[in-house]
Amino acid sequence: MWTAEFEPTQERIPTGSTPLEGSLTATLQGGYVALDQLCEALRAAFAVHERGTASGDQEKEVDLQLRRKP
After folding, report:
1. What is the DSSP string of 22-67?
2. What was the pLDDT predicted at 15?
3. Rounded to an integer, what distance in angstroms lies between the CA atom of residue 36 and that of residue 23?
4. Rounded to 10 degrees, what is the CA torsion of 7, 66, 46, 6?
5. Which conformational region is residue 51 in: left (phi greater than 0), alpha (psi within -120 to 50 degrees), or beta?
6. pLDDT in tens, the chain (70 residues)
7. Which residues face 48 on adjacent strands?
8. Is 26 buried (19+), middle (13-18) or exposed (0-12) by CB count in 10 A?
9. CB-based burial of residue 62 (10 Å sphere; 0-12 exposed, 13-18 middle, 19+ buried)?
10. Global pTM value
């Protein structure tokens, strides 16, 4: 298990082909805007399948499965 904290920014980092063997699951938690930005960045690099969400007043949690893009 890995844990990381990310600070949202308007600066975009170009993504290319990201090597990923098999699939990876990720549980993300945070504010709505920041989490939407992170999911958008992940979709640019990986094939993303949303496995479930839980919403609160000021933040949400998203379970994702990431795979290499075809």
Report:
1. SEEEEEEEEEHHHHHHHHHHHHHHSEEEEEEEEE-SSEEEEEEEEE
2. 57
3. 21
4. 10
5. alpha
6. 677 776 666 666 555 555 778 888 999 999 998 899 889 888 888 899 999 999 999 999 999 999 988 8
7. 66
8. middle
9. buried
10. 0.73
